[in-house]
């Protein structure tokens, strides 16, 4: 089932992606802070995740739109955190947002925590894994029913387990 977001949201997402690509560090949210059940040193995370996943999950970077193979993943199963394997989203809540990033309208209960992100000269809601604090992406209020939410996630922050 295809769900479309409105033109203003699509243009806004495109403008953010272009700005992030043209301005190094502009799209980066703050690194995860606080205590989470899974804690590792930066060196341990870097070794475990590799450079691209480390940049997204631990430094708040944003992957290039349309670059994730998970955009085309439509099987039944669960999308989990690539940092700690915590299940985050049921595949049945995934939808095509037209933004170029895997999008979901509902997280699994207790799987995602949010905080205010004031980077990029605006205020957004950042989504973090509740187990390891990894940066997943952002949550917007322009998604489909029944929640009206769009969890716009970095594919590098996720892993897929088919049912």
Short description:
By secondary structure, the protein is of the alpha+beta class. It is 21% helix and 25% strand.
Task: Give an overview of the whole structure.
The chain is of the alpha+beta class and 163 residues long. It has a single domain, classed as Beta Complex (Metal Binding Protein, Guanine Nucleotide Exchange Factor, Chain A). Helix content is 21%, strand content 25%. Strands 3-4-8-7-6-5 form a six-stranded antiparallel beta sheet. The protein is globular. The model is unreliable at 1-11 and 17-27 (pLDDT under 50).
Provide the CATH superfamily.
Answer: Peptide methionine sulfoxide reductase
Please state the structural category.
alpha+beta
Approximate helicity band: 10-25%
Task: Report Rg.
Answer: 15 Å
N/C terminus separation: 20 Å
CATH class: Mainly Beta
Overall morphology: globular
Q: Kindly estimate the percentage of residues that lie in beta strands according to DSSP.
A: 15-25%
- Count of DSSP H/I helices: 2
Overall pLDDT: 86
Count of discrete domains: 1
Largest sheet: spatial strand order: 3-4-8-7-6-5
Can you summarize the main beta sheet?
A: 6 strands, antiparallel
Question: Architecture, according to CATH?
Answer: Beta Complex
Q: Might you state the CATH topology name?
A: Metal Binding Protein, Guanine Nucleotide Exchange Factor, Chain A
Contiguous low-pLDDT stretches (5 residues minimum) are 1-11, 17-27
Let me know the number of strands.
9
Order of helices and strands: HHEEEEEEEEE
